[in-house]
Design goal:
- 2 copies of one chain form a homodimer.
- In chain A, helix 7 links the parallel strand 7 and strand 8.
- The first copy, chain A, has 2 domains: 135 residues, translation initiation factor eif-2b, domain 1 (Four Helix Bundle (Hemerythrin (Met), subunit A)); 210 residues, Translation initiation factor eif-2b, domain 2 (Rossmann fold), CATH 3.40.50.10470.
- Chain A starts with a strand and ends with a helix.
- With 356 residues, the first copy, chain A, is an alpha/beta fold.
């Protein structure tokens, strides 16, 4: 997708979040966004591991692509006499960078198997993984876009845009396509406390695409719905259970309940790789509790354009910081996938996995 | 209520938010909380006006008391030969400090009428206003406390504690009483973006009373409800319409909808002065839109213990910042008032105003 104002001038340029050129992997330094736009160049698989670990690259799809590219780099770097051992060691190392990221393991497995045939096949397979991720996002956009009418005002939560994938994104992909086709859309961006990925990343993405938007406090959603100002809600997903329950960023559940109350369609956008069919219902999903400092402090840019962390609560307070919540399937109008829009029901989910 | 750790030592002391001694008015400098505890001394009515205008004193009840005291100061200060004219000018000036605060006008009116009789009567009436405010809060606490069971986990939004009134507060008053009686309670404090009055003021109040609490992101409410972790929600109110619809800090509506979805009792605590019987329903209440900077920036304490404002969103973003929302009466379990707990229904509201 487009990034404006590169190098301080008015030019804009298209980027993927991550790509490979020769034996180097390039990626947008997401930990610097939205205040600085920089490309990180990784010259070997160990540097790519570092990038995954330190969240220079983040988001399910982008991490998967990074892991695939890292595995391809490892294959290229491995000496011929100890080749198998070399790529095995690298695989273990790559998989240890973000052990809870499912896409990462799928990617290393695929590229490792290709690397067993040849170095060229490994690079090719890593490229396929990145391309498929972008392609799936594009398809999600095409299906979702069919439901977006001219003039729609859409609320979104957190960041499920192209930064979390290789390109296009999930929740934002239909919006990009609608805008490209000339439909007028207006986006209400939940700031998404505590980490503000909405205000920071989603807003940055929309601005680069010149799509009109306004950031709102997470508290304002139901109010806007009550005033008839929201036509549709689209969010991403971190994990979708076999029955259609959706785990996503904390606050998603609250929007879904309010949307149901006001009869506003609530959609989730996610590729097949987000579904976990071994997980029967959302009750089985364990919710990660993150550091209380994310609530008690806030990070941003001070007057001198330096990143600063400030205390925004009464000193010596405790906080509780669940990172995700589970939205029950019956609050979800539909799920945009690369195989079409489905109802959050076991049978429809099975169908996209070709399970009878 | 109690303030701990005065002057950096371990002593604690009881305070009202505002009080009068001789011809001086003293008040907690609320604009410095929770990072600094200081008392502002106002030596004349003009200084008290300044304190109201600059939000050294804030909150419906506290503003009412401040206005009453200011009027009493004006009466004391007025020269005998131009007495009526003097107190009339002062009244106009006091009423211009926060023209949307209803309590302010009630207070100036009452003290002005007393001042027409004598200076002593004026001071006495101002004191009555402050005492009545504290007394009403205490009664609200007594009624609300009857519903709090031992072990209750209560969520509250924004700050409807003693800082907003003269003493005790509204939403927090029942909690203080429950704690005093030895009931175990745990409070989930919504941080209440954008101005974080929950994280800043409610947390500060609870800490001073040694009541266990945790600050949560506004996004986390429904999640905690879904896990059975909330037994009751209590919020304050900015205005209550004749039909029981409640205008309160943005985000209140979302909590009420989620509470209904999970069958959790949702209570509003407010004195009679919050009711506006001329306002038929919540639809008639105009929602103030505040400065977008409240969303785009955050104010807090930096590493050097200085107050700092940092940018927490993508540069050049727009934000929309409705300050309040309206919770329809049918989402509200009951209202704690100084006349008892009532249902949010016209007949029950009329009863506490002795209207047949």
């Amino acid at each position: 997708m487009k990034v404006n104002n590169i190098d301080g001038n008015n030019s804009s340029k298209n980027y993927r979040t991550i790509w490979m050129e020769g034996t180097c992997v390039f990626m947008i330094e997401q930990n610097l966004l939205p205040f600085e736009f920089k490309i990180y160049k990784s010259e070997n698989y160990k540097q790519t591991c570092h990038a995954i670990k330190t969240m220079i690259v983040r988001g399910a799809g982008a991490i998967g692509a990074a892991a695939g590219f890292a595995m391809a780099q490892a294959s290229t770097e491995a000496s011929d006499n100890e080749y198998i051992r070399g790529i095995q060691i690298a695989k273990t190392e790559i998989e240890a960078t973000r052990p809870t990221a499912r896409n990462l393991f799928t990617a290393t497995e695929r590229v490792f198997n290709a690397a067993l045939i040849s170095k060229a096949k490994a690079v090719n397979e890593a490229q396929n993984i990145a391309d498929e991720d972008a392609q799936n996002s594009l398809l999600i956009g095409e299906y979702g876009n069919e439901l977006i009418k001219n003039g729609f005002r859409i609320e979104t939560h957190c960041n499920a845009g192209w930064l979390a994938f290789v390109d296009y994104g999930t929740a934002l992909s239909p919006i990009y396509l609608a805008h490209k086709q000339g439909k007028e859309v207006f986006i209400y961006v939940d700031e998404t406390r505590p980490r503000n990925q909405g205000a920071k990343l989603t807003a940055w993405e929309l601005q680069n695409e010149n799509i009109p938007y306004a950031i709102i406090a997470d508290n304002a959603g139901a109010h806007l719905m009550s005033k008839g100002k929201i036509d549709m809600i689209i969010t991403g997903a971190d994990r979708i259970a076999a029955n259609g329950d959706v785990a996503n960023k904390i606050g998603t559940l609250e929007k879904a309940i309010a949307a149901k109350y006001y009869n506003i369609p609530f959609y989730v956008a996610a590729p097949k790789s987000t579904f976990d069919l071994d997980c029967r219902t959302g009750d089985e999903i364990i919710i990660e509790e993150r550091d209380e400092d994310e609530i008690l402090y806030q990070i941003g840019l001070n007057e001198n354009h330096k990143t600063e962390k400030i205390l925004i609560s009464a000193p010596n307070s405790k906080a509780i910081n669940p990172a995700f919540d589970v939205t029950p399937a019956d609050l979800i109008t539909g799920i945009f996938t690369e195989r079409g829009i489905i109802k959050p029901k076991k049978q429809e989910i099975n169908k996209i996995f070709n399970i009878e």
